[in-house]
Every structure is written in C-alpha cells, then in structure tokens.
Amino acid sequence: MYIDAKDEQRLAQKIKLLPRTLMLVSSILLTIGIAALYSAAGGKISPWALRHIYTIVIISPILILLVLIDLSLIYKFSYHFYIICIFLLIVAEVAGHKAMGAQRWLRIGAFTLQPSEICKIGLILALSRYFHNLHSSQLDKITSLVIPSILILLPSVLVLKQPNLGTAIILLWSGICIFFLAGFSLRYFIVSGLLTLAAAPFAWSFLHDYQKRRIMTFLNPESDPLGAGYNIMQSKIAIGSGGIVGKGFISGSQSQLSFLPEKQTDFIFTVLAEEWGFVGVTLCLLLYALLLASLYNIALTSQNHFGRLVAAGSAGMVFIHIFINIAMISGLLPVVGIPLPLLSYGGSNLLAMLLMFAIVANVAVHRKLIN
User: Fold this and answer.
1) 108 phi and psi, to 5 degrees?
2) Nearest C-alpha neighbor of 123 from the set 317, 354, 322
3) Left (φ > 0), alpha (ψ -120 to 50) or beta: where does 3 sit?
4) For residue 129, what pLDDT is reported?
5) Is residue 1's pLDDT more than 80?
6) Residue ranges per domain, the chain?
7) Closest among 313, 326, 324 to 356, alpha carbons compared
8) How far does Cα 56 stand from its chain's mean position?
9) Cα angle for residues 280, 283, 284 (degrees, 5° grid)
C-alpha cells in the first residue's frame, strides 16, 4: 500500500505525541501482573499468566488502531458503542452463561466475554459525548440531568440483576465523576448524597442473601471464620506475614498452600503483599499513582471537552477499582468482587482496561476534536 509524504509526516507526529508515561507504567503493571499470576499458580505459566499474555497479544493490533484513528471517529460512534453494550447486557440477562450463581458472561466461540466490563467504557464515552454538546449555561437546568441519568441507570440496573453489585458501583461512580467534571453545581451532589443515605436502610431488603452476609462479615469477620469471613481473614494473615520485604517470589505460605481463595482475581494484591512486603506494595501503589497522574495530565492538556471528560472519567474509574480492591482485601470495605486493574486475572476486565487506555492515548495524540 502506497503511503505519501503527508501520511508519513502525520504518522510521525502521532507517534511523537504518544503518552509515554501511560504506556510505560501500564506495561510495568502488566508485567507485575503476569509475574504475580505465575506465582499464584505455584510457579507455572499456565493457566492464568498464559491467558493474561494471550489477551494482551490478541488485543494489541486493535489497541494500535484505536490509538491512531482520528478521535472524531471515536466521538462519532460513542452512542453506537453504548447501545451495543446495552444490547450485550440484555443478551447476557436472557441467554448468558451462568457461573458462581451469577449470569454475567457470553460465550463467543472459544472466548468468554463479560459485557458489564466493556459497558464501563461505553458509559464513559456516551456521557462524554453528551456533555461535550451541552452548553455550560444548561448545566443549572434540572432537565439536563434526565438523559445522562438514564444513561447511567440503564446499565447499572441490568448489571445489578446479574447480580453484580461491584460493577454496578463502578458504573455509578464513573457517572458521578463525569457529572462532577462536566461542571454541575455542588448542590446536586449534596442532595443526591443525602437521598442515598436516607434510602440505604430500605436498600437492605433488596440485597441478595450472599451480599447481606458479606456486609455482616465485614462488620465482624470473626463471626464466621470458616465461612463468609474466611477470605478476608486469610487475606489479612497473608498481608501481615509479608512484613517489610516479604517472603520472596513464589514463597508465600498463604497463597502457595492455597489458604487464600480467589488469589488470581480479587485477591491478587494479597499475593504481592505476602511475597514482596511493605516495600513491594509501596512501589506498586506508586506505579498506580503515576498511572493516574498520567491520565489526569492527558485530561488537562486536551483541547476539547470530549477528550477531557474521557481521560478524567477513565482516571476516576481506575481509581475506584484500585481503592475498593485494596480496601476490600484489607478488611476496610465489604468484599464486592472488584478486580485490580492490569494485575487481576480476568480477560474481560483486562480487555476493558487496555481498550480504555488506548482511547485515552488517542485523546493525547489528537488533542483537538474535529467534528
């Protein structure tokens, strides 16, 4: 295929504008994730670390394309992508694959997709496009809340029905972040917060039994040490036993002797804490802080409202993943099943994170949006 001098120059300019910090830090975290999954499997690359690598390799061509295409195309098809996400959530509800008491997955050939993970991107894109077209003078009007509220509540309700409380919380939080970034008055958030607190006692009756057990276990883990409280108690033991420098790679007793359940997914950070101790945990948290700083920097340097909201909304979504996961494994929050970005095993979450970072990288490369 013939490429003229203008195309070469344009491509060189895009490569020059690539967000190197975002790419470098995410690559380091992916490497740490692969190493942690290798250790969690007892020093074996299969199954978790190998599938992590497969996902990265398979999705790489799409990521490159997503970074280099014009941002205006992503803007143009934002609503289309959101509608596809909602359609997939409905299909999962009607004919999805059941596992662990939930119906969240779709089988696509040899692959299994969790639509709720991809819907996180769809929601951020749809809200960003909506607010991009909304004049600042319209933000004080209550009618301006109707459409974006529907955009948030529709996937959140569908995800809650699966049931998947953790992902529903992520969707709601991401929506709230973009509402705040769009410039809505603080009074809306205060009123919404008060209404949420008032409704909390009534929400208890709508929770599933296992969700109620998780909350009660959070309040008193020792009440059922061999049942609902087992995971969090083992997690605390593993974190505490790591000490300052940890027990060493593939040397954690709780993870290697299988005392720690779900060590490859929600509790992967516990594996790191046990093996690398306080030093390793601190370095990992610093990498996450650098990742978030990179995302916010891209938002600040973007010259269009759509790009700013996409980048900052993505940063908010990554932050709440990190915060809930680490607070959860430390016993500071109830266990809700939130994976740790780039580290936890799970193809759908990894796919969603990589796609989202590629879109944010696109925002950095194309700082201006041509409608």
Assistant:
1) -125, 95
2) 317
3) beta
4) 95
5) no
6) 26-365
7) 313
8) 16
9) 85
